[in-house]
Amino acid sequence: MRTSRTGRFALGLTIVAVPLVLALLGPVFAGEPGPRAASFTLGDAHWLGTDFVGRDVWRQVLHGGRPVVLTALAATALAYLVALPVGLVCALTRYRWLEELLMRPLDVLLAVPSLLLILLAATVFSPGAVGLALLVALANVPDAARLVRAAAAEAAARPAVEALRMQGETWWRTAVGYVGRSMLRTLAADAGTRLTGVLYLVATAAFLGVGVAPDAADWAVMVDRNRTGLFVQPWAVVVPAVLIVALTTGTNLLFDAALDRGARRGPRRTEKEARP
Length: 276
Prior knowledge:
The protein has 276 residues and is an all-alpha fold. The protein has helices spanning 2-29, 57-92, 96-110, 114-124, 129-156, 159-166, 171-182, 184-207, 219-226, 235-274.
């Protein structure tokens, strides 16, 4: 069983390493753009061929991963930056009206599909990369806040929290020092699946032209703009598509294996700490 967990961890790390390294370090090694050639051609010093406007596909691949990765990471971080305080306040407050005030608007947003929300916002204004990250974060806040509230409410119902209140501990120490630490595993599990979903959402939005220029060096845009030449020059579509799938699949496997390892170590630590 341990070999299986280690194998899944190594497999996830291997899968995610390739697109992640290309996304973060690719622009450093991309070099200067060369002269454009004919559209959708192979050879002629372009070992992955050219794209729909004659640009070198390999150079576009090296530049195209960073927007996807950075936007997804920023959107996930922003979603938790809002969801954590909202969820903790709702779980620990004794004022029902405050919980209603914070959660009811989020329930309205939760009823709207994430991609539809982004497309509706894109009809009002044209978001750039920062705007896309904010929209994706906004779409993820309601679900993340409800999860944080549920996990925090379970921890807040324990006798230890009531004991902390009776001792006169501050709200901050109770919320962060005890309740926050108690739900770290839940948040870590959610972060893995949420980051995968955010990556798909960012890639889909970029594929539909939201947040990026039509000819931007972006893996999702490359798939969209080059699909007309799929049967003539497939590498312009296949390579960025495979990299997006590898990034999401590898991230999911990595988090799953890491959390499974932590879950099996957790009971042993608890039993050890319980001994007199």
